[in-house]
Structure formats: C-alpha cells, structure tokens
C-alpha cells in the first residue's frame, strides 16, 4: 500500500510564527520569511505540558476551597466559594448565571484536566488508539480554552451591576486569583502539547527530536 511522503522525509517543517514551509537541511535553522527559529517539533512538549497541567491541578484546589467573592447586604458580609455562589444564584432564581458559572468553573476545567491527561498519557506511550478522535479532542480543548475566563468575567459583571443599583457591595477574594492561574496554566499546557505526537511512531519521534536538537 502506498503511503504519503512525510514532511520529515523531505526535511521540511512549518514555521510556528508565519506558517511558511521551510527547509530544515541547512544551518542556521531560521525562517526565511520572518526570521523565527525553526523547530521540527515543539521543544520538550510532553515535559512542559505535564508541568503546566500539574501546576493547574495544584491551583485548582484553593480555587474551589477559598472564597472567590464577598457579598455585603445591609451591613452583613458573607464569603462565597465557586460552588456556594452557584447554589446562591440558583436559589435566587438566577439559574442562567448559575449555569454559566458552573460550566465555566467546574465543568470546563474538569473536562480540560481529563482530556489533557488522556492526550499526554497516550502520546507518551506512543499509542495507536483512536488517533483521529484524540486529534479532535485536542481541537476541542483549544476551542473551549477561549471561554475559560467566563467565571472571572461573570464575577466582575455581577459586582459592577450590584454596585450600580446600590443594592449591596461585592468584592473579589483570593480564590478568583487562583482560578485565574488555573485557566492560564491549562491554556499553557494545551499550547505546549504538540498534536503531531498523536500520529507519530516512537521511531519517528526519535528522528524528529534529533532534528529539533540541532
């Protein structure tokens, strides 16, 4: 069966900056168009992705345990965590805001943790299992990454609306900072992962790593 020629067989790679197809056979390895350094693969992709993912998991614990905002009504103040805030909005009839916060703060990070862990483990083992589906999962993670800051935005909007109407006072707490760090580190983990590792055999990976190290 005829197999298509790979870019690595022709010593070609795409520039990560401008997307130009560049020749990797000569030195120094810089893009002719924009001058960016060329890499056959993202440098230390798996190691950096694991590091960012583990850091985000560590920050996810205080993000859910510590309060994200403090609500003061008629002189009485109360701190709210992410989950207690979801329940409060739901009980007061604001089910749409509660649903947005739950999806953005609980469901989306959980899905990202699970999918990134799956991609990293299978890529590290050189698994042939469900390669097309794993590629789609990676594109899905990239897509939902743009909406990961919804919870932070919702807290800011609710605080602004409450203060505007003079009904109460809402102030952010340290938990929202940890949640922001979770979002940043999960995005960095997804950006550091090289999806081409899904399709590579271990021998092809060794060749690519050898080219990237020059």
Automatic annotation (TrEMBL):
Organism in which the protein naturally occurs: Halopseudomonas laoshanensis
Listed transmembrane segments: 50-69, 97-122, 143-162, 174-193
Top-level taxonomic group: Bacteria
Keyword Cell inner membrane in record: yes
Subcellular location(s) of the protein: Cell inner membrane
GO CC term, one of those recorded: plasma membrane
InterPro entries found in the cross-reference section: PqiA-like, PqiA-PqiB_transport
Pfam families assigned: PqiA
Keywords annotated in UniProt: Cell inner membrane, Cell membrane, Membrane, Transmembrane, Transmembrane helix
The protein's name: Paraquat-inducible membrane protein A
């Amino acid at each position: 069966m005829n197999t298509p020629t790979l870019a690595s067989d022709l010593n070609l790679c795409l520039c990560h900056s401008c997307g130009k197809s560049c020749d990797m056979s000569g030195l120094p390895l810089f893009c002719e168009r924009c001058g960016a350094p060329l890499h056959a693969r993202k440098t230390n992709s798996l190691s950096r992705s694991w590091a960012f993912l583990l850091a985000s998991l560590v920050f996810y614990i205080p993000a859910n345990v510590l309060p994200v905002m403090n609500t003061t009504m008629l002189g009485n103040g109360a701190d709210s965590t992410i989950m207690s805030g979801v329940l409060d909005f739901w009980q007061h009839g604001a089910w749409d805001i509660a649903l947005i916060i739950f999806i953005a703060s609980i469901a989306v990070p959980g899905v990202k943790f699970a999918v990134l862990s799956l991609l990293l483990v299978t890529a590290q083992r050189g698994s042939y299992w469900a390669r097309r589906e794993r590629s789609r999962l990676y594109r899905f993670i990239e897509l939902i990454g743009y909406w990961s800051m919804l919870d932070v935005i919702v807290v800011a909007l609710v605080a602004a609306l409450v203060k505007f109407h003079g009904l109460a006072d809402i102030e952010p707490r340290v938990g929202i900072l940890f949640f922001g760090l979770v979002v940043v580190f999960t995005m960095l983990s997804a950006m550091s992962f090289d999806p081409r590792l899904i399709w590579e055999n271990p021998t092809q990976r060794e060749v690519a790593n050898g080219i990237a190290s020059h």
